[in-house]
Amino acid sequence: MEFPHVQRPDPTVHQRVPDGSATFGFLKSAQAWRRMFAEAWGTFLLVVVAAGADVVGAQSGGAISLGMKVVAPGMMVMAVIYFMGTVSGAHLNPAVTLAFAARRNFPWSRVPGYLVAQTVGGIAAASFLRAMFGTLGLLGATTPGAGVGDLRALVMEVLLTTGLVSTILGTASGARNIGSNAALAVGGYIALAGLWAAPISGASMNPVRSFAPDLLRGDLTTTWIYVVGPLLGGMIAVGFEWILKGKPTEAGALAAQGELK
Amino acid sequence: MEFPHVQRPDPTVHQRVPDGSATFGFLKSAQAWRRMFAEAWGTFLLVVVAAGADVVGAQSGGAISLGMKVVAPGMMVMAVIYFMGTVSGAHLNPAVTLAFAARRNFPWSRVPGYLVAQTVGGIAAASFLRAMFGTLGLLGATTPGAGVGDLRALVMEVLLTTGLVSTILGTASGARNIGSNAALAVGGYIALAGLWAAPISGASMNPVRSFAPDLLRGDLTTTWIYVVGPLLGGMIAVGFEWILKGKPTEAGALAAQGELK
Amino acid sequence: MEFPHVQRPDPTVHQRVPDGSATFGFLKSAQAWRRMFAEAWGTFLLVVVAAGADVVGAQSGGAISLGMKVVAPGMMVMAVIYFMGTVSGAHLNPAVTLAFAARRNFPWSRVPGYLVAQTVGGIAAASFLRAMFGTLGLLGATTPGAGVGDLRALVMEVLLTTGLVSTILGTASGARNIGSNAALAVGGYIALAGLWAAPISGASMNPVRSFAPDLLRGDLTTTWIYVVGPLLGGMIAVGFEWILKGKPTEAGALAAQGELK
Amino acid sequence: MEFPHVQRPDPTVHQRVPDGSATFGFLKSAQAWRRMFAEAWGTFLLVVVAAGADVVGAQSGGAISLGMKVVAPGMMVMAVIYFMGTVSGAHLNPAVTLAFAARRNFPWSRVPGYLVAQTVGGIAAASFLRAMFGTLGLLGATTPGAGVGDLRALVMEVLLTTGLVSTILGTASGARNIGSNAALAVGGYIALAGLWAAPISGASMNPVRSFAPDLLRGDLTTTWIYVVGPLLGGMIAVGFEWILKGKPTEAGALAAQGELK
Question: Which residues span the membrane (chains A, B, C, D) (predicted)?
């Protein structure tokens, strides 16, 4: 059987336009939209699962246990890395995008676009949940646990995100050795962080995952914890990665940027 | 030690018949039966696990928790992809077969055979469960959760299947990079979809998985939700894949069709 | 830094004895003991985990949930395949050894030794548990669930083992494609079989895993179910593998026999 | 896009110093600090998760089930092996370091530094937990279960660690075949040991994981069990590995020492 239309990804525009430099510009622009779409769709999936598990739990009278709630988003990130990590790097998290940039694996010029795409994806997910279920379960918001207080929640978010970004940077830089199992390490870390620490701070580790439900439920009181904590933890992990691995590697840049040309 | 009888898969008929073209026709026919058997046996296993967990849970007075029920079918699909993905592509789901065809990774001419084999496998699984346990636990049927309603269940099936088929198409197209870990991504996605969303719609994502128990218990009232939702979600995912990856790839065709010649 | 003593596995006796043929005989004999030890130690670990989870659950007043009990042995088999699959093939189960032989991936002449080693390992595990905890929790015996009856338990063991041996034979024959992820498929299958079906028959799928606790607790009434069921299921899976893959492959023989020369 | 500063890890000092031998010494010293930092940070993460799950469980009124408590540290070790296994070998455990040395995969001269780094990391983790939560949940200490007694706890730690170190040594020696899936085997083993046996001894398998909380809570009564048991189990596993695999391999040395030059 023949598939005459099957070929490797290559925008057809390239062959239609005689002017090479213009084609290249168009090409880059098409790829940029691809990356934006990937980050938005991937972050939508992450937030709809992470926040949605709380919402569905509330809607169903407690059918979703804490263990189920925290494992599901980790597996979602694993799947997203597998199905579109080569498109955008599958950051899905401003703390990750900024850490990759600070680590010099990712160009600062692309950071604003990624943050916008992630925010759009996260807000779309929270909007979907509110349209489906109202503000049940606080729309899956992350808040400091009972008796924990803002400061301890902040410290926990810093620690958890330091571990997460250490895992992400460390597996990215070693891509030659670790290969696609990096998705297992990253997804597994997200799951385990919730397994042991969710009752303290919600184990968000991601400003957009926390901001989107807070915005849609109209309570931004504790959102700052989940912006400051993950960003700070990410920067500490960048420092640790420097100690552990030295200068950034090409493998890390490839993992952070995807493989689109 | 010698194994004179050990060799690579190669139907012996090939050597018995002098007429090459006839042999090739017979060969293709034998491979077609292999694919049919693979889809039927694989779908049997998926449905017997997914529906059976509910049935066994009812039979044992609740020994199977929701978490156990939803993780088991995901692991079953992972195992099936590993043990016979190279034979038939291990679709196990009409929504997947149609999405592969719409994505031009799979020939439309083989679609009817796959749908028949999947339906036969699913009905055999539901028949097995009924013979063993009667119609306990509604034979593992998927239905909208209490207080959910048909429309919200439909929307949830659309969303969940969009994510599933995104994962399947995206890992198939990147087979060169992802290798056999695609089975982990797909199996993991099926598990996580149930972990966060099963109380809403049952997280079927598969017309045959829902139709077979409904047929055997004699209640097809809500079956349409699980036909329309997954098929619609699958088509949305085909569109998303076009945005993310552009034209279909040879790797995707290989993953969708298996490796039999 | 130098490791003058580090080299690839190669019995030193080989260099001490001038007579080549005698050396080779000794070499083969040493490797045979290695395989025996591997099967005994691996089966010990499998049975001590599978039966031990019930015993520890009874000893601790129910601290081990059904989900924990059935997932642990699956992960144990995964780890054993990884750490010594290349030594003996890591069968750990007479139903697997006989299926590999019937599939012509494994020489019949080695079958008796494997069955003895597996039985010794299983009895050692049950003896360890009895010495530590008495016959608490029926020593982890598998028995038909309440209200199930022998026949339905037997049918369930046949079905579950057909799936297990399909997974084992199918991933072994495709070793070139699946690589070491076969351990995930097999370990995952063992876990999922328990997740959905343990209340019916205990999801043993392994004559030694059931015989050893029955022997040590002195009740062999239902042991036959767990001998007949797994052996029958294994043979069905051999037939299925013939349909799916045709003649046995070298990759399958390598997986079944390990890589020792 | 160009990354003029991106290159493979290579301390820049090398180019600044004209004296080759001095450079090499400095280089080795820098790499030694990297290994120390890796072992300290990795052991911190392991202990903060393993002990922290108990502490958070106590702080949150029991929100963390036993299954969650024991799976989280296994996944943490998996992630650590992936993100920095190539730096230090990711031992995280004196029983592992001593077993690698006894197996001749790791130089005895580096053992003291590793033990110090692991101890520092473990104490830092216990200190963090005490600063955050006081001595709630006994700071996550491992102790013999109710009605178990010291001797049975000791025997269980010996058995569990024999399995753990068998898994570690066996997957390290077979690195050519198993590749980076060794992290799944080791992390999976740690999780399963807790799943079936945690109520007996806590399933520590690691002197530092037990010593650090005992030190910080001021009760070293049963610490000896978790020093003697794991060390003894590790040595038995070294003997088993000799039987299974014969002489140590270069692959094992590479896995044990990391890939820094």
Answer: 36-56, 76-102, 114-133, 153-175, 182-203, 223-244
Q: Contact at 8 Å (CB) between C25 and C190?
A: no
Residue D168 is encoded by which pair of tokens? 């570690």
Taking the Cβ of residue B243 and every Cβ of chain A, the question of whether any pair is shorter than 8 Å is answered with: yes
The mean pLDDT of D198-214, rounded to a whole number, is: 98
Report if residue B8 sits inside a domain: no
Q: Please name the residue of chain C whose CA is at the shortest distance from the CA of residue D154.
A: C132
Domain hosting residue D219, numbered range: 23-257
Judge whether residue B90 has pLDDT over 70.
Answer: yes
Which residues 152-211 on chain B approach chain C with CB closer than 8 angstroms? 179-181, 183-184, 187
The tally of domains found in chain A comes to 1
Average pLDDT over residues A191-207: 98
Of all residues in chain C, the one with the smallest CA distance to D193 is C72
A8 touches B at CB < 8 Å: yes
For position A54, what pLDDT does the model report? 98
**Count of A–D CB contacts within 8 Å?**
142
CA-nearest residue to A70 within chain D is D68
Q: What's the pLDDT at A19?
A: 40
User: Considering the domain boundaries, does residue B59 fall inside one?
Assistant: yes
CB count, 10 Å around CB of A250? 15
Q: Quick check: A197 and D59 in contact, CB under 8 A? A: no
The first and second tokens of residue D124, run together, are 């830092």
Instruction: Say whether B6 and C146 touch across the interface (CB within 8 A).
Output: no
Band of residue A260 on the pLDDT scale cut at 50, 70, 90: confident
Cβ atoms < 10 Å from Cβ of B4: 6
Domain containing residue B202: CATH number: 1.20.1080.10
Shortest CA gap D42–chain A (Å): 9
Using one digit for the tens of pLDDT, what is the confidence trace for C72-106? 999 999 999 999 998 999 999 999 999 999 999 99
Instruction: Tell me how long chain A is.
Output: 261
D32 torsion bin: left (phi>0), alpha (psi -120 to 50), beta (else): alpha
**Residues C38, C29: contact at Cβ < 8 Å?**
no
Is residue B195 included in any domain, yes or no? Answer: yes
B8 and chain C in contact, CB less than 8 A: yes
Residues of C in contact with D199 (CB under 8 A): 56, 59-60, 63-64
Q: For the segment D81-136, what is each residue's pLDDT rounded down to a tens digit?
A: 999 998 999 999 999 999 999 999 999 999 999 999 999 999 999 999 999 999 99
Which of A75, A132, A171 has the most B C-beta neighbours within 10 Å, making it the best mutation to test the interface with B? A75
In angstroms, the separation between the Cα of residue D45 and the nearest Cα of chain A is 8
Please name which of C65, A204, A77 lies closest in space to residue B184, comparing C-alpha atoms. A77
Q: Tokens 């390239």 — which residue?
A: A14
Q: What's the gap between Cα D162 and its chain centre?
A: 15
The complex's ipTM works out to 0.91
- Tens-place pLDDT, residues A64-110: 999 999 999 999 999 999 999 989 999 999 999 999 999 999 999 99
CA distance C138 to chain D (A): 16
A76 contacts: CB under 8 Å, gap ≥ 6: A45, A46, A49, A50, A187, B189, B192
DSSP A46-115: HHHHHHHHHHHHHHTTS-S-HHHHHHHHHHHHHHHHHHHHHHH----SHHHHHHHHHTTSS-GGGHHHHH
User: Is B10 among the domain residues?
Assistant: no
Q: Is-contact C79 D182, C-beta < 8 A?
A: no
For residue B65, CA distances in Å to A139, B70, C66, D24, D223 come to 25, 9, 9, 59, 37
Count the residues in chain C.
261
pLDDT exceeds cutoff 60 at D22 = no
Least confident of B10-14, B133-137, C191-195: B10-14
**DSSP notation for A119-180:** HHHHHHHHHHHHHHHTTGGGGG---PPTTT-HHHHHHHHHHHHHHHHHHHHHHHHTHHHHGG
